[in-house]
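Title: [Solved] ABC transporter permease 3D structure

Original question kept below for reference.
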Amino acid sequence: MALTELWRTFLRTQLTRVRLLVIVTGGIALVLLTATIDARAAGDVLEPLGLGLLVPLVTLVIASSTLGDLDRDGGLVYVWLPPVARWRLAAAAFLAVATIVVPAAVLPLTLAGLVAGQGPAAAGAGLAAGLAALAYGAVFLGLGLRVPRALVVGLVYVVLWESGAVAVSDTLGRVSVRWYAAGLLDRFVGLPDPTGAPSATGLGLLVITAGGFAATVWLLRRHRLT
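Solution (posted by the thread starter after getting help):
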């Protein structure tokens, strides 16, 4: 089965009206909230509510169900049984997730930054949100395949680790997506740089993305259909 055909199959299962409505509503709410604050406080909204809440939760809902729900519903067998390389299956699923979550992350955060009257904040928020969405997508894609209640586990992870680790310690934060995304945003809004290295933030998100994708391929190779 061709990569594009697999991509369309995964995309159709995830791109529902209800999910689109939730994504659009969340994005509009963030933009409207940002419009009510002082421009100098834009980073204080874009980071905790955008990068810390909207991006991981939207990505969790989409990515955790792309392979996981299809497997538990018995639909994965139809794309599994043809001779399809597992990396190709993972790539198609990841591309389908990215097709949805990257625009859902980039557009509202970029608009929120523009509404706040900060061009640099808008550029930083859009870039950080896009890379964070890819990293979260790669991580949650494998989680959904491996864990039966991935949505609940993912929520606990986002609240306790992604938010808690960043707040408690920079050392713990270095293994969280949000820490790198927040560092990337900070470069554009003029806040203190938590990394101390010019390319650490963006590079860290790309490394997490690659690691999550590799883990998904490995899990697919070991997975047994339910």
